[in-house]
């Protein structure tokens, strides 16, 4: 399980009058389940990009269990992300031409970590997400099924944190609900910290804490009823 501590973070882009993201201090406890909300352009994707190390930050600290990834080189950030962060994106980022199983295993293969145990876990995860045809080609799957493959892939290396950026936004209501349930159940079962960026009020209401961004700043940070009950 990973805890996140952010300090003095300031992300600016050329042409923007104010920072896309400015966070003085934010702590997310290991094992907690947090929703990141906010209007379009409020900095949600920038948040995901910097805390996962996809984007470099020039100012501030981003500590995962005390390790400041802001000070890492790009290749070290890539290795850290592959080993520790399970990323689920709105647009899945799966590879057509490959099967469901091959897609789940691809990042592990690229990292030289596709061991027999990983292959066994990939089969088990596909089973958990209720996909019973591991050999089915990605391009023949429905969008809800594709997102379930992406979830299985994100969990393969037992990440300490699952970060999902609008995981239900491109799905119909029913598939979106099923995918939301699945991410929550799997994060619970695996004991991963969970951070979900979403406009989906129902999904956000099932998490413990809701952080709202406005113009790149935290405008609200509240424990939800689900969090009070936990
Ligand atoms: N690479 C970039 N160069 C310039 N401006 C950028 C860049 N990336 C993001 N921005 C700007 O930073 C601000 C925050 O963008 P961000 O994508 O984080 O918002 P968001 O909350 O994820 O929005 P949405 O819900 O529409 O995806 C916006 O004003 C956006 O135009």
| Sequence stretches where pLDDT stays below 50 over 5 or more residues | none
**Level of helix content?**
25-40%
Coarse morphology: globular
Bound molecules: adenosine-5'-triphosphate
Order of helices and strands: EEEHEEHEHHHEHEHEEH
Topology:
Layout (H helix, E strand, L loop, with lengths): L3 E8 L9 E8 L4 E6 L5 H8 L9 E4 L2 E2 L5 H11 E5 L10 H11 L5 H13 L14 H13 L5 E5 L7 H18 L2 E5 L3 H5 L3 E6 L2 E7 L1 H5 L1
Parallel strand pairs: 3-8, 3-9, 6-7, 7-8
Antiparallel strand pairs: 1-2, 1-4, 4-5, 9-10
Helix pairs in contact: 3-4, 3-5, 4-5, 5-6
The structure holds adenosine-5'-triphosphate.
Task: Describe this structure as you would to a colleague.
The protein is an alpha/beta fold. The protein has helices at residues 44-51, 74-84, 100-110, 116-128, 143-155, 173-190, 201-205, 225-229, and strands spanning 4-11, 21-28, 33-38, 61-64, 67-68, 85-89, 161-165, 193-197, 209-214, 217-223. It has one domain (4-229): P-loop containing nucleotide triphosphate hydrolases (Rossmann fold, 3-Layer(aba) Sandwich), CATH 3.40.50. It is built from eight helices and ten strands. It has a six-stranded mixed beta sheet with strand order 6-7-8-3-9-10. It has a four-stranded antiparallel beta sheet with strand order 2-1-4-5, with helices on one face. Strand 7 (161-165), helix 6 and strand 8 form a beta-alpha-beta unit. The two termini are 17 Å apart. The mean pLDDT is 93. Adenosine-5'-triphosphate (ATP) binds next to helix 1.
């Amino acid at each position: 399980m990973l805890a996140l501590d952010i300090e003095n973070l300031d992300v600016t882009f050329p042409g923007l009058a104010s920072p896309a993201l400015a966070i003085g201090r934010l702590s997310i406890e290991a094992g907690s389940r947090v929703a990141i909300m906010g209007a379009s352009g409020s900095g949600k994707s920038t948040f995901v990009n910097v805390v996962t190390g996809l984007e470099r930050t020039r100012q501030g600290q981003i500590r995962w269990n005390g390790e400041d990834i802001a000070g890492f080189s790009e290749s070290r950030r890539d290795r850290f992300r592959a080993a520790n962060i399970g990323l689920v994106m709105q647009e899945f980022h799966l590879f057509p031409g490959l099967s469901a199983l091959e897609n789940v295993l691809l990042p592990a293969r690229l990292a030289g970590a596709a061991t027999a145990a990983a292959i066994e876990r990939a089969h088990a995860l596909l089973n958990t997400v209720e996909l019973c045809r591991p050999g089915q080609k990605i391009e023949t799957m429905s969008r809800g099924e594709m997102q379930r493959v992406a979830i299985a892939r994100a969990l393969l290396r037992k990440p300490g944190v699952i970060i999902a950026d609008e995981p239900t936004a491109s799905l119909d209501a029913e598939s979106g609900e099923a995918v939301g349930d699945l991410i929550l159940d799997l994060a619970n079962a695996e004991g991963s910290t969970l951070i979900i960026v979403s406009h989906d009020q129902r999904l956000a209401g099932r998490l413990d804490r809701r952080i709202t961004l406005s113009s790149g700043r935290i405008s609200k940070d509240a424990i939800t009823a689900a969090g009070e009950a936990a």
